[in-house]
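Appendix B, example 12.
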Amino acid sequence: MKDPIRWDNLTSKEIGLLAQENAIVIIPMGSTEQHGPHLPVGTDAILAEWFSHRTAEALRSQGIPAVITPTFAVANSMHHMSFPGTVSLHPGTFLKELKDICSAIAAHGFRRIAIINGHGGNTAPALTGLVDINLELGFPVYFMEYMDGTDEKPFLESQECMLHACESETSLMLAYDESLVDPVYKTTKGYPGYTTEAEDRGFLKTFHRQETHTENGVMGNSCLATREKGELLAKAATERLAGTLSDPRIWGLSV
């Protein structure tokens, strides 16, 4: 069945009309990487697309035209490459692909573009890339994490924000499609931090391979995940995302 929210379901003419309507274009950005023994390697892309779709639906319910592009599903996952199933771009390739995507969308007349990201490894290169992208396009392309910590804290037992294949992320996948989650999550735990206290507290930053943090690829306690938590998390995050993008003050700005 045709989904009018999906760019790839629309005709060229329909996309042209959306540009004339000054529609918000949402780019779901995820990854293809290991997520422990219980979640699929597409988890970040799946959830980024899910939240992008939910956000576009919420915007449309307010009378704001919105559409989601095909998902940016292979991104910056170099730190996971020691685990089977991970597919990654080098940062330079990532930056070029992101710029090309944003430039192509803008070439069709769109001036309201936002990225909804589902993978922490994308944050630094994406924000770096937006400096050049925004200067070239002349208007701001925005970057948003689908979770920002404030959404999660009230609902989680063992952590305050998303880690990796953890209580939060596993709960969201259970809410999205329980069949994609291996039941081994019920007994799975992973190291919840970095290599030193300074890194845990954010005073010290560098590149590490994921196995320096965790042997099983998990950071956090997936064993505490539930579908009910995932539903609550999804509702709170969608409300924040749609509320942010519906604010007219962020659009119409020039760089």
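The domain at 7-246 is CATH 3.40.50.10310 (Rossmann fold). The chain has one domain: 7-246.
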